[in-house]
Amino acid sequence: MAEQRWALYMGCVIPNRLPFMEMAVRETLRHFSIPIKEIDGFTCCPNPLTFPHIDHHAALAVTARNLAIAEEQGLPILTPCNGCFEMLKGASVRLKGNKELLGQVNEILAKTGHEYKGKTEVKHFIQLLFEDIGPETIANQVELPLTGLRVALHIGCHIVRPSHLLGVDNGQRPTLLYQMVEALGARAIRYQDEMDCCGSGTRPVNRDLSLKMTGNKISHMKQAGADAMVVICPACALQFDLLQRMALRHTDNQDPLPVFYYPELLCLALRTPPDQLGLSQHRVKVDSVLAKITPLQIA
Amino acid sequence: MNVDKRLQEIAEKLSKRIDTLSCYACGTCVAACPISRETGAEIYHPRRFVRATLEGEARQLLEAPELWLCTSCHACLEHCPQKVPVSELILELHNLACSLGIAPKDIATEVENILTSGWALAPSESVNKRREQLGLPPIPLKSRSSKDLVKIAKATELNKRLKRIKERREAQAAEAGGET
Ligand code: SF4
Ligand code: SF4
To answer: Is A255 in the same domain as A232?
Structure first.
């Protein structure tokens, strides 16, 4: 593994709502010896679904302040959340190519005592695993292949779109998550509305509409034969796991579908004990999946 | 901010970049939009926002509640054959609506919370208990950095917009109260 050290930007949803996802992130970092530094002073990215809608110029300044804080330490940013990634990476690209905009932002930042020079690089956690470690290396290290497990993909919007800013993968038909799931020995399941939003973006405005979108996607995953689904974003996880029961009320299908964060599946395939990952904190029980992939351990 | 002037600027910039007529005949963004598919295009129709802007009729749109149904997924922008930044246009329209005091309550409340606590979702005692079960350190309930966000809100339009949103909401509540 490259020796590059990263400023870990955890965001707010994982540590404050879904701490079991933090466990999987930290276990993965440990396994691959990825050096990180925890930095004081970060704030909200801020949430792309609310803050920029009121004032996108102020939002850019808040994001630039986070970029400046990493820059002051001379470190690139690593984030395990799609929303944070879109804000941080999007701002870093916009500000790199535009001196005038950078000047305007720094005028605002001066009030906070920070200055952003335009240097901070940003990566999503799954992007780091894909680009710097790679599906092949991961496949070689898997100790407990997830053979037979059918996992529906939900990559989420804010890691791939807008693709001209984020540049991680194709914005209409990405393959990154497909490759990463198959690397674990599982079967990646595609379905009709795979690239649609989880619904969380419209939740503050119309909860029923939002939950209906979530429920529809879950139904389609089930119709495609999924045993479980995988996400790489805590906002999607919140929508699919915490709110699944309510979402399914909007559909004909009430059968639950376990939801995994990719690093959780990865850790399971590396033989991290489920208890250590805190999988019992999931709202939708994952026992059916564990029974499928860890028969020897359970017996 | 002069809303009409800004709308005109946006329309001019957009019309220089795209072929208006083929946009009016296209609709790829509508087909790509998950909200349109869910509500039906008669209720939510992203191309209508583009067209209204180009034709100088976006002012009325700022009052339309459906403008806020957008889930910010950027599918429209990604699929548009002319690379019209539809979702970014919607964001601009949201900003303009806010400068008139128009915004859904929960969106404004969350931004106020971010300015107070530093985060959209603040830490709590109960999550710290769940963290403890996993052996994770607790998160301090107060962030020291939120005061920088307050400074940013003061140095931009954000404070004024939040104030106007609050005033408008209070005025509407008073009006509704007066009727009953
Ligand atoms: S996809 Fe683009 S060109 Fe087509 S209608 Fe929408 S904005 Fe116009
Ligand atoms: S960003 Fe908004 S308008 Fe565009 S496709 Fe998504 S929900 Fe529809």
So the answer is: yes
Q: Are residues B87 and B109 in the same domain?
A: no
Q: Are residues A283 and A262 in the same domain?
A: yes
What is the pLDDT of chain A when averaged over all its residues?
95
pTM exceeding the 0.90 threshold for the entire prediction? yes
CATH code for position A151: 3.40.50.11810
Give nearest CA residue, ligand 1 atom 5: B27
Q: What is this model's ipTM?
A: 0.96
Collapse the DSSP code of A40 into the 3-class scheme (helix H, G, I; strand E, B; otherwise coil) and give the result: coil
B51 CA to chain A: closest CA distance, Å?
Answer: 20
- Structure token pair of residue B65: 């509640």
Overall domain count for chain B: 2
Q: Are residues B28 and B91 in the same domain?
A: yes
CA distance B10 to A1: 47
CA distance B157 to B2: 12
pLDDT score of A64 more than 90: yes
Residue nearest to atom 8 of ligand 1 (CA): B23
| Bridge partners, A189 (sequence order) | A152
Domain encompassing residue A156 = 134-298
* Residue A1 lies inside a defined structural domain of this protein: no
In this structure, are B44 and B119 located in the same domain? no
pLDDT digits (tens, 9 = 90+) for A229-258: 999 999 999 999 999 999 999 999 889 999
- In the reported structure, the alpha carbon of residue A120 is separated from the centroid of ligand 1 by a whole-number distance in angstroms of 34
The pLDDT-based confidence of B54 (bands split at 50, 70, 90) is: very high
Does the N-terminal peptide bond of residue A162 adopt cis geometry, omega within 30 degrees of 0? yes
